[in-house]
């Protein structure tokens, strides 16, 4: 039976509308809205039951009810209208953000640690938002009662909860008491220090408390409606340490879902992350009809909306459009006309989605490594703390994803809560991954010992998540080297010591990597170390060459430089910078700098060359096509086929720019490939198949926009 969780075309109408003006929502008409949805070919509707304003759109037994819903049941009317038109409803419910509760129960509010520094009490969203503390038992009981009543009253297909994260570092009495009782802290730490056990264990506690709150709500929802599919927004898991959200609980939800606004490159890595996190149903990629809903009337071009939706189709995900209601309760017809034409274009491909995404490598996503070491000593009142400022790990992680995509090396994502996926992985990338739990370190070590191959870089495994930063790698035995002092300049030179590295960076004689993009930019604090005490069988692939007068930065008066604009290489050393080491049945490559964080062509060449050198068999997907072409492959052995998608995902959203695609794909073990035809009309696609039948190539395929190609599989006996 079709329910919300197996629809692919979905929508959500933001309704964060207060009720202090009688004109608000005066023209809201659930029947008209349902008609509009139906003409837009929408199948699944996520609908507001309670917004951040804290007002329910149904007769809730506790809490606020919107004035427009007094004497009416706006939720019930919309649910009925949707079902009458064959659409499937799911419930949206906001927690933590609840202005009604904050105004009526001020004692339930979060108290931001910024108030210790004389700042007003609000979170990073600003002063409009009332924020409740999940450590307050009365607040939690209120949410439980509301949620259970909601799910008992209506027959929703799914339950979707927003805002399960910390928008402040809360120092309310309940948080203080838990910090004292559970962590022995007399004061809640309000100054960042990732090298302090007090600060780091407090941050872990914030995560644990938020996880406990979510588990309480999820259990309460299941108690009220056994088996109802449940999700909570994964966006906060991508925002850094401040939210306390570390993707720990998402694999135990029914499906992963999140509203994303970062465009194409973010969509790629989040889609791959969603595949590992979403364990019970197809994941939901959500984005708004405007580039930024803060500019209420904006609407993206049809081409841009189409590319976003086809991006979800290429990744075999459900796509959800977010619209925002006008305060008077109306919506704009043009929005739904545009959604309708986009969904008409994506609908024919849906019946072919599903299966297992093919990836040749996995990139490790570590929310706990999204910290800035150079923020140590800053008070949490520093506005920079609220911003999503990029730390070294984000630069390396996003750089790795971007470099892999550009080289068409298909990747999946593994994170702390999905370590069991390592069993299906052959090559793992650890991009400057500083903070690992002991169980993560152990899982990585076992992975390599059992035959896995890794690329690791930078500070990987130098710190744990409890405030201990070590002088050596926890994975030193795996890397085959130890730390031997800190590198102290802002530009690093690698001198190749083997031909494969020299060839990868050719014609550049040395690789140059820096943490400063221009002379006007402040040099970033770089966290690079020399290596020493190598294992006997560790192979050096490149060595450090030092700039003139290293480590002196040079000045007008000290004459400690060799060229005024730059610090060219000068002194060759034998000190290893890039190494390779066999560990157990596996293999590790370690680079002292995170090569993947740089966008320079030669550095990317070296990074992707190293990754390819870790393959033990031909990758399932190979292509030399333009970087903007998304190539995905899904195994569907139960339908005796693979599904190959090609999307010409031009970031500028231009019409009529045709890509030429060359791609070779391999069959899963034990199968041969029987041909290639378009799913939508069954027409054959020109191809060649290798003599053993296991690989298929498409050459110079014209790709104006999107192709979905079925590759039949024949089982070998
Ligand atoms: Zn609190």
Descriptive report:
Helices cover 25% and strands 24% of the residues. By secondary structure, the chain is α/β, with parallel strands linked by helices. The strands form six sheets. Strands 13-12-14-15-22-21-20-17-18 form a nine-stranded mixed sheet. An eight-stranded parallel sheet has the order 7-6-5-2-1-10-9-8. Strands 11, 24, 25, 27, 28 and 31 form a six-stranded antiparallel sheet that branches. Helix 14 runs antiparallel to helix 15 (601-613). The chain is globular and about 80 Å long. The structure holds zinc ion. Zinc ion binds at residues 110, 133, 135, 170, 172, 174-175. Zinc ion binds next to helix 5.
Supply the key terms.
single chain, binds zinc ion, 31 strands, 15 helices, eight-stranded parallel beta sheet, alpha/beta, nine-stranded mixed beta sheet, globular, 717 residues
* Main sheet attributes: strand count, strand direction, barrel closure: 9 strands, mixed
Give the helix proportion (percent range).
10-25%
Task: Count every beta strand, where a strand is a DSSP E run of 2 or more residues.
Answer: 31
Secondary structure tally, helices: 15
Shape: globular
Structural class: alpha/beta
Taking all residues together, what is the mean pLDDT? 96
Widest sheet, order of strands: 13-12-14-15-22-21-20-17-18
Distance between the termini: 35 Å
Radius of gyration: 27 Å
What percentage of the residues does DSSP assign to strands (E)? 15-25%
Low-confidence stretches: none
Question: Could you say which small molecules are bound to this protein?
Answer: zinc ion
């Amino acid at each position: 039976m079709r329910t919300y969780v197996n629809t692919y075309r979905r929508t959500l109408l933001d309704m964060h509308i207060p009720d202090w003006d009688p004109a608000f929502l005066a023209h809201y008409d659930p029947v008209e809205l349902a008609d509009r949805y139906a003409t837009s070919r929408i199948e699944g509707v996520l609908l507001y039951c309670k917004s951040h304003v804290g007002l329910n759109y149904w007769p809730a037994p506790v809490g606020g009810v919107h004035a427009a819903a007094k004497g009416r049941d706006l939720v019930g009317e919309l649910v009925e209208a949707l079902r009458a038109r064959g659409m499937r409803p799911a419930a949206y419910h906001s927690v933590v953000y609840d202005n009604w509760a904050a105004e009526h129960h001020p004692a339930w509010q979060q108290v931001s640690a910024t108030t210790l520094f004389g700042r007003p009490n609000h979170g990073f969203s600003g002063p409009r938002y009332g924020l409740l503390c999940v450590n307050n038992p009365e607040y939690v009981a209120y949410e439980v009662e509301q949620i259970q009543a909601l799910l008992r009253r209506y027959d929703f297909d799914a339950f979707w909860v927003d805002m399960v994260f910390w928008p402040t570092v809360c120092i309310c009495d309940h948080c203080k008491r838990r910090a004292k009782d559970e962590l022995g802290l007399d004061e809640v730490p309000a100054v960042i220090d990732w090298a302090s056990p007090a600060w780091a264990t407090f941050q872990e506690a914030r995560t644990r408390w938020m996880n406990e709150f979510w588990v309480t709500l999820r259990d309460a929802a299941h108690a009220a409606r056994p088996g109802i599919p449940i999700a909570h927004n994964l966006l906060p898991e991508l925002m850094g340490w401040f939210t306390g959200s570390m993707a720990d609980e998402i694999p135990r939800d029914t499906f992963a879902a999140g509203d994303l606004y970062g465009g194409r490159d973010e969509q790629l890595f989040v889609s791959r992350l969603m595949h590992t996190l979403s364990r019970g149903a197809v994941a939901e990629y959500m984005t708004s009809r405007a580039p930024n809903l803060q500019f209420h009337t904006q609407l993206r071009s049809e081409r841009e909306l189409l590319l976003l939706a086809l991006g979800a189709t290429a990744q075999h995900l459900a796509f959800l459009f977010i619209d925002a209601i006008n305060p008077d309760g109306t919506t704009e017809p043009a929005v739904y006309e545009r959604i309708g034409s986009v969904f008409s274009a994506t609908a024919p491909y849906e019946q072919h989605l599903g299966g297992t995404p093919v990836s040749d490598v996995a990139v490790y996503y570590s929310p706990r490594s999204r910290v800035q070491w150079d923020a140590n000593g800053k008070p949490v009142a520093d506005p920079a703390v609220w911003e999503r400022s990029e730390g070294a790990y984000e630069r390396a992680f996003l750089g790795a994803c971007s470099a892999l995509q550009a080289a068409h090396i298909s990747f999946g994502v593994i994170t702390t809560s999905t370590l069991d996926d390592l069993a299906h992985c052959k090559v793992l990338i650890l991009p400057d991954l500083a903070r690992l739990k002991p169980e993560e370190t152990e899982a990585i070590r076992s992975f390599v010992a059992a035959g896995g191959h890794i690329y690791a870089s930078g500070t990987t495994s130098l710190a744990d998540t409890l405030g201990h930063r070590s002088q050596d790698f926890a994975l030193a035995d795996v890397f085959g080297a130890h730390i031997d002092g800190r590198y102290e300049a802002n530009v690093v030179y690698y001198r190749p010591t083997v031909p494969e590295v020299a060839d990868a960076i050719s014609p550049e004689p040395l690789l140059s990597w820096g943490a400063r993009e221009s002379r006007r930019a402040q040099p970033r604090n770089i966290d690079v170390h020399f290596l020493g005490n190598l294992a006997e069988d560790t192979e050096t692939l490149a060595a450090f060459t030092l700039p003139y007068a290293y480590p002196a930065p040079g000045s007008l008066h000290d004459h400690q430089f060799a060229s005024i604009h730059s610090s060219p290489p000068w002194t060759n050393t034998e000190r290893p910078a890039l190494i390779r080491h066999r560990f157990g049945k596996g293999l590790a490559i370690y680079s002292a700098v995170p090569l993947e964080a740089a966008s320079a062509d030669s550095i990317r060449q070296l990074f992707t060359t190293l990754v390819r050198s870790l393959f033990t068999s031909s990758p399932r997907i190979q292509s030399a096509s333009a970087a903007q072409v998304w190539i995905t492959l899904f195994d569907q052995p139960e339908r005796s086929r693979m599904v190959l998608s090609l999307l010409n995902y031009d970031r500028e959203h231009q019409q009529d720019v045709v890509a030429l695609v060359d791609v070779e794909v391999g069959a899963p073990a034990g199968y041969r490939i029987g041909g290639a035809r378009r799913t939508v009309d069954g027409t054959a696609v020109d191809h060649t198949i290798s003599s053993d039948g296991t690989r298929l190539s498409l050459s110079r395929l014209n790709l104006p926009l999107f192709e979905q190609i079925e590759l039949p599989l024949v089982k070998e006996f």
